[in-house]
Structure formats: structure tokens, C-alpha cells
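Entry:
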Amino acid sequence: MASTSPNPRKGEPLYTPEERRRRDSTVWTTIQGVLAPTQFLVFLVSLGFVLRYILTGEGLITASASVVIKTLVLYAIMITGSIWEKKVFGRWLFAPAFFWEDVFSMAVIALHTAYVLALLTGFGTPMTQMLIALAAYAAYVVNAVQFLLKLRAARLQEEAERADAGTAEVTP
């Protein structure tokens, strides 16, 4: 069933009341809440290893392993995120409320996958592979900011709705 979720870019709410109820009642919201900071921590550690290799030429195996781990965590959050989207919005991906975040997520996945494929096939030099990883990480940062802005918009929407409800209760 296709979602009838409003498009937040047109001033509509991010979640309908029913979507918010589903969001708040599904375990997948908690899973996303755990995986997102976990992925960010893995990203920071891996970024350190990748930059160390790029700057010193040391630690290639550690840097490579860390990018593979980051990619696996990315796949996990993307799979569970699509389940979350199905539970909340009724579609696996590209729900109107998260359309552009999902579009950019596909680019992030493509870049991470390109790194893994380059590593497994021996495509390019190790430095070329690490530069692919850096491109994937830059895309990840942009995507993470997209989601943080979306979370902020949801919080602000809920605060505004609570304020409106409080005003309505006081009004005779």
C-alpha cells in the first residue's frame, strides 16, 4: 500500500498522527536509534585508520578492515531502516517524508559497495581504494546531516503540536 504521507517540503507535517503512532510503537525505531550512533562511532574510528594510511602509508590492513566493518554496519542500518519505513509509512523505501534522504542513501551504499568491490577484485592501488572509501565517507556525512535535520524537523513539529494543543486546552 502506498503511503499518503504529506510532503514536508511543502510545509506539511513530517508525520501524520497515525504515522507517528506507528513510529513510536515499533521496535525498529529503537533499533535505528541504536544503530545510527553505532555507525557514526564506527565511521569515526575507521576514518582515523583511513587517514592514517593516507598520510603515513601505514596500517593498510586495519584501514581496509575498518571500511569493510563500516560498510557492513551501513548495510545493517539500511536494511533495518527500510523495515522501519515499511512499518511507519507503508513502503520499503522512498516514502515521501524521507525521499531525498533515501535517494542519497543509495549513493552512499553505492560508494561503500564500490570500495568493497575494489578491495575484493584488487581494482586500483590501495591508495585509490582508500580515496574511494573517503568519497563514501564524505557522502555518508552528507546523508547523516540530512537525517539529523529530519529528526530536528520532527522534534520541532511535535513541540509545535504540543504547544498548539496546550493553547487549545486553555482557550474557553
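Confidence is low (pLDDT under 50) at residues 1-9.
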